[in-house]
Write a structure and sequence with these properties.
The protein is of the alpha/beta class. 41% of the residues lie in helices and 15% in strands. It has 15 helices and 14 strands. The chain has helices at 23-37, 78-81, 85-98, 111-123, 138-144, 154-166, 175-184, 209-215, 237-250, 274-285, 303-309, 324-331, 362-374, 376-390, 395-413, and strands at residues 2-6, 41-47, 56-60, 63-68, 105-109, 130-133, 169-172, 192-194, 224-228, 257-261, 292-294, 312-315, 336-339, 356-357. Helix 1 (23-37) crosses helix 15 and helix 8 (209-215) packs across helix 11 (303-309). The relative contact order is 0.13.
Length: 414
């Protein structure tokens, strides 16, 4: 099968290069790699963001990344990218024509890529099935937005409504996301297929904790609580800091620290992003600055050391379509406390309900953290159970499910 993947606004290789990225980058690249290993030919298309970007990057004989020009070089706010879609489409059509390329299926990631897919569908002489993975939904993001600045525009919501009606199939990462698509977007149920993200178990695996700590320059006696992800309000990092304050006040002798992986901290602190500065100010306000360390964005190859050095990973999100970080931590045998709004919470067995917390409840989260820190037997059992569970989500297995959706969509169209 020849597959085109469109990741318009963000480069699938960003996480490999240690650039600011999220679960979507990892998802697209790992899925593409897996499908190419299964013998399929995969081209990933993304917007060129620097003059130094090579037009074509050969990753393996069946997989390549193609940079197409669309707008000025450098980062462009996502809300402004929609105006550059026509240029991207023109360059996509020119590239495929010049290289005599035809695809069996087009898999679009995020709504902007979906809009590109819909237009290509109308322009192609031989329309191909459009498969959609939203990764996040605007209506859900608006539900948890703290102010107007964070809210998604009506144009995005309208686009998502249009996509749910016009694409051939939608891949939802969890039962929660399927329900949102069905009831909030009036999506025909037959179009929605639940397939969670996978995890690279050859990269994310258990290792000796002291070796991991040495690799990331963490003190050997440290008890690390770890957060990994984008630095944005819906991730709930402020609630995690409140919980840390509660822990410190209730038990001053509890030796614990919070390491935050994510965000660009390469510049001086006063030049950090708005959200990073807010968190830094909150840290000082709560008098927990000695307990918190910002370590910035880390590449995929380095992340396993952070997971294995930690006592637990905490994902206090207000909304999370899935939460690939959770799977990565589980594969390393590290317990994860996650909110019940995250799609991944469905994977955690009922006997481990102590790992499920609620949004904006720092008292509950603090008690859950302390329980894991002070109950070695349960901590060990949870680690073992979660590790076994993660093995069910190897990319090899997920890739097979995705291919089945592609095949079914092609069959229906024929």
């Amino acid at each position: 099968m020849r597959i085109a993947m469109i990741s318009f606004h963000t480069c699938p290789l960003a996480s490999e290069e240690g650039k600011e990225s999220g679960g979507m980058n990892v998802y697209v690249f790992e899925l593409a790699k897996q499908l190419s290993k299964q013998g399929h030919t995969v081209d990933m298309y993304t917007r060129a963001q620097a003059e130094s970007n090579k037009e074509i990057i050969e990753i393996n004989p069946n997989l390549r990344l193609i940079h197409l020009k669309a707008g000025k070089m450098g980062a462009i706010p996502k809300k402004q990218l929609i105006s550059h879609i026509p240029e991207f489409i023109r360059n996509y059509l020119a590239f495929t024509k010049n290289n005599s390329l035809e695809y069996d299926v087009l898999h679009c990631h995020y709504y902007l890529s979906g809009l590109i897919g819909l237009q290509l569908k109308t322009l192609n002489d031989k329309p191909v099935p459009i498969i959609m993975t939203f990764h996040t939904l605007a209506l859900m993001k608006n539900l948890v937005a703290r102010d107007e600045f964070e809210k998604e525009e009506v144009a995005r919501i309208d686009a998502e409504f249009e996509l749910t009606q016009k694409v051939d199939a939608i891949i939802a990462p969890s039962e929660n996301e399927k329900e949102y698509l069905k009831y909030l977007y009036n999506t025909p149920e037959h179009k929605i297929h639940i397939v969670p993200p996978g995890v690279n178990t050859s990269l994310f695996k258990p290792m000796d904790k002291q070796i991991a700590k040495k690799k990331i320059n963490a003190p050997s006696e440290s008890k690390i609580l770890l957060f990994v992800g984008r630095i944005e309000p819906l991730k709930g990092l402020d609630m995690l800091m409140y919980a840390l304050k509660v822990l410190k006040t209730k038990d001053p002798n509890l030796q614990v620290c919070l390491w935050i992986v994510g965000g660009d901290i390469s510049q001086k602190p006063h030049l950090w992003s708005r959200q990073l500065i807010l968190l830094k100010n909150l840290m000082h306000l709560l008098h927990i600055s000695m307990m918190v360390k910002f370590v910035g964005q880390q590449s995929q190859t380095v992340l396993p050391y952070y997971y294995n050095a930690a006592e637990m990973v905490i994902m206090p999100s207000h909304y999370e379509s899935f939460g690939i970080v959770t799977l990565e931590a589980m594969a390393c045998g590290i317990p994860v406390i996650t909110t019940n709004v995250a799609g991944v919470s469905n994977l955690i067995d009922v006997k481990h309900t102590s790992l499920i917390t609620t949004v904006n409840n720092p008292l509950l989260l603090a008690s859950q953290i302390k329980y894991l820190l002070t109950n070695d037997k349960d901590h060990k059992l949870m680690s073992e159970d979660l590790y076994k569970k993660a093995q069910e989500y190897k990319w090899e297995l997920i890739g097979e499910k995705i291919i089945k959706i592609y095949e079914d969509s092609i069959e229906v169209r024929q």
